[in-house]
Design a protein that fits this description.
Elements: H1 2-52, E1 59-60, H2 62-68, H3 71-75, H4 86-93, H5 103-137, E2 142-143, E3 148-149, H6 152-192
Antiparallel strand pairs: 1-3, 2-3
Helix pairs in contact: 1-4, 1-6, 5-6
Length: 193
């Protein structure tokens, strides 16, 4: 009986190790994806700063257009973060979350996937809704060969979307930091197994 118990515990520790390694690798991939998205936001923010200098029906010459890109590109939803949750989802769906012996670590993992990542998805959805509204307003933007006339209301809405986008970027950066901390905790736990 004691040998059977020992074998069962060993199997559980092996499964725990597989799940933790898989989750760690998924989180590493997530951190890389977040870094790419953050850099895209930084590029977009530089173009928003140029737009911020516009007045009511500001005439923008070709050099501005080159720097800004088309107005639709400014309000297009940025690349959204899509997390890798294969090992976490597998662990949950198979009812194996109890295999993680460190309860605090399990709680931290669940918080990242169930709270932090969902918050990012909610903010991204609000950005999409705001972008749809701005696209509708930009139908009144006038283009000519050498210039573009942008209604002030449209410009202001584009600028207000910048605030939400910056919030998303900052939450993304905070999540990336949390993911790195969680990876360290997982590595410490794996050393104990």
């Amino acid at each position: 009986l004691q040998v059977n118990n020992w074998n069962e515990q060993r199997k559980n520790r092996n499964k725990e190790s597989i799940y933790l390694n898989g989750i760690k690798n998924d989180l590493k991939s997530d951190a890389q994806n977040m870094a790419l998205i953050i850099s895209k936001f930084d590029d977009l923010n530089a173009r928003f700063l140029l737009l911020d200098s516009l007045n009511k029906y500001e005439l923008m010459n070709r050099s501005y257009l080159t720097e800004l890109g088309p107005p639709m590109q400014l309000i297009a939803p940025p690349v959204k973060f899509r997390n890798n949750s294969g090992y976490f989802d597998s662990m949950i769906s198979e009812g194996n979350s109890g295999l993680i012996s460190n309860v605090e670590l399990l709680s931290n993992i669940q918080n990242v996937y169930n709270i932090n990542y969902k918050r990012l998805a909610d903010i991204a959805q609000r950005i999409d809704q705001q972008a749809d509204l701005i696209r509708w307003e930009l139908r009144d933007t006038y283009y000519t060969r050498d210039s573009i006339f942008l209604k002030k209301s449209s410009a202001l809405n584009v600028l207000s979307s910048m605030g939400l986008r910056n919030h998303y970027r900052n939450v993304l950066e905070k999540n990336r930091s949390n993911v790195f901390e969680l990876i360290k905790l997982i590595e410490i736990e794996l050393e104990k197994l």
